[in-house]
Design a protein that fits this description.
The structure is a homodimer of 144-residue chains. By secondary structure, chain A is mostly helical. The first copy, chain A, is built from seven helices and two strands; from the N terminus they run αααββαααα. Chain A has a single domain, classed as Arc Repressor Mutant, subunit A (Orthogonal Bundle). The first copy, chain A, binds a DNA duplex (30 and 30 nucleotides) through helix 3.
Amino acid sequence: MFSKSCEYAIKATIYIAVQSNQGNRVGLKDIAREIASPEAFTAKILQQLSRNHIIDSVKGPNGGFQIDKKEMTRIKLSQIVSAIDGDAIFKGCGLGFKECSEKKPCPVHDKFKVIRNELKTMLENTSVQELSLGLANGLTFLHR
Amino acid sequence: MFSKSCEYAIKATIYIAVQSNQGNRVGLKDIAREIASPEAFTAKILQQLSRNHIIDSVKGPNGGFQIDKKEMTRIKLSQIVSAIDGDAIFKGCGLGFKECSEKKPCPVHDKFKVIRNELKTMLENTSVQELSLGLANGLTFLHR
DNA sequence: AAATTAAAGGATAATTTTGTCCTTTAATAT
DNA sequence: ATATTAAAGGACAAAATTATCCTTTAATTT
């Protein structure tokens, strides 16, 4: 569904959100350990998230990553997915056709459209804030 | 969403279905041309479909691929997807966790579950027969 | 200002997915 | 029986994704 990079991105963002809510800025090592991801690879992903203004990064001692509390409800899963995987999953054809539309649909177009739109809606309506709450409250988990 | 292999598999199966409904057995070259896929790569995929009893293959002169008409309504999209991509898309966690369950859910578990189940249901209830009709009737397309 | 800390970024490597080529096997037709 | 046809299968290659290592840049602390 999502690329590995995107999975890491979502996990990392949620973890950073939890920590930011507690007033903590977190470093790469911390994040990679917490979400069980390769450190250097995770660094690249965090860079992308930072460039896309999904997270903030601070260099130097006591540096690290954080998310502005006021922005946290604004950030939706869809933005993370778009930033890392692009928007093929929201807009793309189920069979990968470039030109697949209402007037020239592929065989699965109508059936696929329904699912794709529901996925899109779900991602657009799910905030990082919301997901971080479940994690902070111990209702959800980022590792086994 | 689906791998390239799986996209080819679905396209090929639908095309074979249309031809089988018209009493034609079709060869690899024909299929690859029609669905705009690399020939040798498509051959591998057709082998997998054949091994999984989704299509039948016949060697030698006038050989090729076909689908039993009586079986055609039985074959669902879900079987093609399972055969080629496995069942991660039906069962897997949205964030890729091995152990993600109701009692130990990942942060997106509840929201993702809904979409995944709808996708599963759609694929399980969509027959190749059904999709081949739209194509045969000129309502849907396998190329631009 | 100098030393230290941590992210940014470039280069490279491993793995997986996608794609190609060539030989073998099995069926049909002559 | 032999030749021909077309799928099956093995080995290999290219491309994309995932992952690692090392240097540079930008902060903070001393």
